[in-house]
């Protein structure tokens, strides 16, 4: 349930009393079969395979995606709510993640701990995560436990147990996560919290989504109920089942267990748009725990799903993904400024599972003997070359092959979680889970000329934010010359 691992209008218990599901879960059957947790490799995946996709919508608006695959006797269930960091109200930073924790604290027919016991007792695993535009809950279980898991998720959707004690307990858990993962961690939230805050103008994209401690302390039970009422409901959710199951039987269970939950009210309107950035931004943070300076550069992405978006995905492969990438070659192998370069589109997920403004990011931790100017000179030269000089068709094809191998590797794992995540994202954001079988079309349309045009607009200095991590002296001051 940690943010680094990976929320829709609901109805109060009084309203839902008339549509309560059965008080006891269905039998999970023989518990000797353990859920698979291994993963396949991209090299083993044929790029011409087709994912089985069956798409339905219940009368209450719940979108249901079923994907049969009988190769492993397990089923993966994912419930995705269309609410994430961007939906948090002002003064309640970190609330989406805090509420994710609350949804694990029990429901009307499954008191605290019973949900986990149900999953683990069947030989399965479960978890959840909060991201920019969704919150998800998922389980991987033996196929004979699927009916019970669906019942449990329906009970959680309809009747979460929200009380003061659980709120206080989970507030402390989240506060501890903030200390462990950010405040007491070298480089902490540098690239995944601080950079978006510096790069974006709209508060919904630019606040501390892990949570300011004062905001977490101020969160009340009334806030939790309001958040649930606004965002947690069938009309703002997607349910995905992938794996070894009978389609008609499973759809019948879903209609029976979820179909009577009220749809919920219309979602509050939230403007998450960002203005076009015209001038380069610079920012720095001081890190008492870091032992080397660091540098992050974030460029605003083209809108998701556009030709330029697919071109940026290819540019990402060319510039930062893999030891043969251009920035790795220039910064690491040629100049020796750092031991590695990393980055990508959507560092808290992937290039597909978000639905708003996003950054393409480059990050590195460099030796203290080199200055930011040294590193930026090399980075700029590498970026400028790809903005002005044609990329060969062979380079484009190699990048496209790497990208598609990554994509197919994501969907072809025995846990099926990557598959469920993509199906849910395409249903939630595009109302089109079948897009998973057409994703290659966008990459195939990327040409060297489109790459050049995209790089000229989106990799210009005026579209980026440069964030330094500076070291502090033992007395806590910034070393001379770094002001």
UniProtKB/TrEMBL annotation:
Keywords: Hydrolase, Metalloprotease, Protease, Zinc
Residue ranges constituting the Peptidase M16 N-terminal domain according to the UniProt record: 63-178
Domain of life according to the entry: Bacteria
Name of the protein in its database record: Peptidase M16
Protein family per UniProt: Belongs to the peptidase M16 family.
GO function terms (MF aspect): metal ion binding; metallopeptidase activity
Signal peptide: none
Stretches the record annotates as Disordered: 22-41
Compositional bias annotation for Low complexity: 27-41
Domain Peptidase M16 C-terminal: 220-403
Record-linked Gene3D superfamilies: Metalloenzyme, LuxS/M16 peptidase-like
GO BP annotations, alphabetical order: proteolysis
